[in-house]
Amino acid sequence: MLSDIEICRSSALLPIANVAIQAGLQDSEYHSQGQYKAKVSLDSLKRLQTNPTGKLVLVTAITPTPLGEGKTVTTIGLAQGLAKLKHSVMACIRQPSMGPVFGVKGGAAGGGYSQVAPMEELNLHLTGDIHAVTAAHNLAAAAIDARIYHEQRNGYDDFEQRSGLKALRIDPKRVVWKRVMDHNDRALRMVTIGRNEEGKTINGYEREDGFDISAASELMAVLALASNLKDLRNRIGRIVVAYDLDGAPVTTEDLQVAGAMAVSMKEAIEPTLMQTLEGVPTLIHAGPFANIAHGNSSIIADNIATRLSDFTVTEGGFGSDMGFEKACNIKAQMSGKAPDCAVIVATLRGLKANSGLYDLKPGQPIPDTLFEQDHEALKAGFENLKWHINNVNKYGIPAVVAINRFPQDSEEELLQLKAMIEMLPNNVEVAISEGFASGGEGTLDLAQKVVLQTQRKVTFTPLYRLEQTTEEKLMAVAEAGYGAASLTLSEKAKQQLAEFKKHGYDNLAVCLAKTPLSISTDGSVKGAPAHFDVPVRELKLCAGAGFIYALCGNVMTMPGLPDKPAFMNLDLDEDGHIIGLS
Amino acid sequence: MLSDIEICRSSALLPIANVAIQAGLQDSEYHSQGQYKAKVSLDSLKRLQTNPTGKLVLVTAITPTPLGEGKTVTTIGLAQGLAKLKHSVMACIRQPSMGPVFGVKGGAAGGGYSQVAPMEELNLHLTGDIHAVTAAHNLAAAAIDARIYHEQRNGYDDFEQRSGLKALRIDPKRVVWKRVMDHNDRALRMVTIGRNEEGKTINGYEREDGFDISAASELMAVLALASNLKDLRNRIGRIVVAYDLDGAPVTTEDLQVAGAMAVSMKEAIEPTLMQTLEGVPTLIHAGPFANIAHGNSSIIADNIATRLSDFTVTEGGFGSDMGFEKACNIKAQMSGKAPDCAVIVATLRGLKANSGLYDLKPGQPIPDTLFEQDHEALKAGFENLKWHINNVNKYGIPAVVAINRFPQDSEEELLQLKAMIEMLPNNVEVAISEGFASGGEGTLDLAQKVVLQTQRKVTFTPLYRLEQTTEEKLMAVAEAGYGAASLTLSEKAKQQLAEFKKHGYDNLAVCLAKTPLSISTDGSVKGAPAHFDVPVRELKLCAGAGFIYALCGNVMTMPGLPDKPAFMNLDLDEDGHIIGLS
């Protein structure tokens, strides 16, 4: 079989203007960015706001292996399948970070015959939105350190007289806004900044700091959750970047940098229109993580797509305990639009890995034994799938299981799994999905099942309401959501809760940051764990995004490069084409 | 008078396709990026290579004040003036860094009625080229630290067995590739990276590092000097990022990251087409500094523009001792195309400041006295202008002085200055230039004088040939170029010279990094200094760019933000338009 980039390059793509017309956009509502990309103007929403809202299909997954279960392939494949059934359809996905593209994981454009194209443009700079987020984020960081430096240089009084500004008296030990970079750069996780060369003092004062990958920026979550430019501007202004010497929060508005940050993100707020290999219009917008943020494509993109098409297919990061939970409790509560159907992606290898009998690691080859028939492992891992089906139903949302087929899978075992799902008491549908090998032709059954399930009446039930206390909301996700026996706040987390409440931050959503490799907070516990505790180590306030996130275990916000990073394969050929991208 | 952004927004702009047609590009040779920008494909050069080459006009300046003398205004104004005279003309300028836009200086799109439009797009992300340079640069940095980390983790043998790669044995104390960011961020000048949180060792090893502003990246110079994509790829591979434990250079090619860096810059190699307020096609490409790099727009942009138009107007950073010198000795020797005429921008205030009687500082208001008639100061400062005229003539290039008029200037003094220039024995022409206030109408006289001077025969004479020794080349710039009495290499610089030679780096150009505020290396020495020494503290090898740069005095490669940064004025208005950008 051809590589992803070979398939992508050998496909005939439509000029983006044709894709825009097909999507139902008018000429003035988009701006082409080269041949195959366009920025969609938010003015389009003014015209579209009275349109009926189409069905929103959210693709989620079982508890994934570190290799992923093919959620984006299924999302794009399903969109193509729905188009083949003559439905009007769009896909909405997140913009991939360049860190993983150059690091371990490779691209995130889907794969095989279910890709967003041109995949190299999607996987690299696209239309610069992540760069704009990075620039806005680091501008605030520079503003913080410059302000501390100038205020401390000759004292606060001198600063106020010199500048005519009020001193903010930021506590250098309580700056909570790190810097970001869109790379996997382990060496930047913890840094000391403001160092002085021997004998020089021009660089200010030293303090401990660190870099996150750009997708972990609160601004990325802000971009994904904003409803329009004004809302973006206001959310940015609410971001707390530090505390002053009295313990009061300091915002970007206090630093008078919120306006410039919004200016930097003015174009990023427009979703990027692309197409799948079969010409389905696809919006790419924002790329928040699914642990420390809510892990879904943007509200704005969904809003445009659902008003243009009968079906919008989108995806949430990791399993249904992660991106799907946050799509329901954070995103849907902010947007007012709940998913009409959830597609749960399952794979034979993923379910067997959920038996706990295999140990898969990213960057290492999959053991051959995982593709051999193993009924015991499948049966054990099936508990995990059942958990995710029940989880989706818990929110009142109908489910379809998409068994994403890999070439090595045995037909017999696939049918066995399908039969096991069909035996379940839930009103769940199931289809074998072959989007990778066959594009939309490979997802026709899945698409039909999805159409069926979206005809059901949805009584959407989030796990909590924003008016509840933060502690109640955290417990709701842990207990009603994960099925944990308890949630335990550390002393630090308790103090933080009290502090946030004191400063008026008690009506925010909650976002639990935990390992995606288990439903529990321990990545080694596979299947469908019960009787576990969710220990909350620390809380982080994201007042701009509108949630408090809870660190449950170690969550890495700056990945590292492996021994042999993916970038080693990348180059330009004699004709200037990119090679080695997958 | 209206602000720059108000003038820009109230001007009727042409759709970029019309600008492209006017420039002589064919449909397949550009890709629109929104309404007013387009990327110009390098394929255009295949068709154009047999076209005759138009005249290249390089705008330079007297020794500038920290406020600048209006070189970009004159460049854009002159291009508009030439267009009004019915000549076919294009302008080529550098992409502004966002650091100064948010910091002190503001935008760099020209000003008044001589601007590149839309100025907010030029001044912010444009088409993402600086972001692409930043991403490629920092990818190499992450690759270096990841490689050191993995090689040291369990020793070189273990690394080689595990990865199948040869250990590079990079000396962590001899990494010469810093990280970059497109912000004025003082706190990042010197940082300690790879720090470990107490009890954790996942972050690797500590080492001292720092950030430069992105415009200072060698990749920016590489982009500006490359002749095509293949040359870009090869230059990137030659970049020396570190030395190993035996003192041998380690390149990006050794790290196997050069291909991925070129992939990241694949779109950045295409110049961005925009227009001036009067519709003159303008190419924006690359933005290297004029001290540690050569400070001129790209060879590729010049190459396209000179083959499309009869006149190409471009500019070199700072005074003629800086950007112009490097345009002649570095850029023209690489491109094979020397300027046909130089325009020296002079201002009354700038010449008076060159008397040494005034002390101007960036970010502080200009003393009113500078605009009062002061014949003594003007006469003293005039020596500086004479120096720059002689300097331009030294290379065999005809000169035109453009007296850039400010609203406060006295008519009498302007005419006095004009008369003084007309009395000079050189074949120099002079015109008063009012591009800021009147656009092309204000530069008609200047444009006529430029046409006149470009009809002279040019016998271009660079100061050195690449075959000379590095020391000879450095002395040529200092003595024949600046008129210094001597050049003194520090012990460190001497050792470095020997080391570079040993590794075969002796046929490169030289690039002297010194203050732009004096012809000498001491910024407080104004006018036309003589009998001075040029002390070289340290050398830096830029094997990819193709030059060795010599640090003569302190050169700041990461600016800081002032008390009240320009970003405080920036915001979005009710309609989502950017306000406060100048």
Automatic annotation (TrEMBL), chains A, B:
<comment type="pathway">
    <text>One-carbon metabolism; tetrahydrofolate interconversion.</text>
</comment>
<keyword id="KW-0067">ATP-binding</keyword>
<dbReference type="GO" id="GO:0035999">
    <property type="term" value="P:tetrahydrofolate interconversion"/>
</dbReference>
<keyword id="KW-0554">One-carbon metabolism</keyword>
<dbReference type="GO" id="GO:0005524">
    <property type="term" value="F:ATP binding"/>
</dbReference>
<comment type="similarity">
    <text>Belongs to the formate--tetrahydrofolate ligase family.</text>
</comment>
<keyword id="KW-0436">Ligase</keyword>
<dbReference type="InterPro" id="IPR027417">
    <property type="entry name" value="P-loop_NTPase"/>
</dbReference>
<keyword id="KW-0547">Nucleotide-binding</keyword>
<protein>
    <recommendedName>
        <fullName>Formate--tetrahydrofolate ligase</fullName>
        <ecNumber>6.3.4.3</ecNumber>
    </recommendedName>
</protein>
<dbReference type="Pfam" id="PF01268">
    <property type="entry name" value="FTHFS"/>
</dbReference>
<feature type="binding site">
    <location>
        <begin position="65"/>
        <end position="72"/>
    </location>
    <ligand>
        <name>ATP</name>
    </ligand>
</feature>
<dbReference type="GO" id="GO:0004329">
    <property type="term" value="F:formate-tetrahydrofolate ligase activity"/>
</dbReference>
<dbReference type="InterPro" id="IPR000559">
    <property type="entry name" value="Formate_THF_ligase"/>
</dbReference>
<dbReference type="InterPro" id="IPR020628">
    <property type="entry name" value="Formate_THF_ligase_CS"/>
</dbReference>
